[in-house]
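Usage

Read records sequentially. Each one opens with the input sequence:
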Amino acid sequence: MENLFICNPDCSITTLAPLDWAVTLATLFIVFTITTLLRKWAFNWNKYPDTSIKWHVPRFIFITFILAVITTPIVWSIFGHLGARIYGQFIFPEAALVIYFIWLLGT
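and closes with the structure output:
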């Protein structure tokens, strides 16, 4: 993915080509669609009691997806590929559990 944009390596908003804009907007649309579908799926499981694992799994998947969408690009841009791998293997799972438990305490 090193040559994602035509203007690589000196890209700015003003130098993006129409194809670059199309790829960017398509990616944003896909992430928005997946997020919306996951949200509807995760919070539609109210027929199970909150002590059931079937109540927790969809919500946990939704929260981990949102956490990944928000934090992974930031970690990748600051620390690079190796930092993102370390984050994904060691920090992200624990962070997802902590955020899920915080969310549970708030509900």
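Summary fields computed downstream for this record:
- The helical segments are 18-42, 53-106.
- The mean pLDDT is 87.
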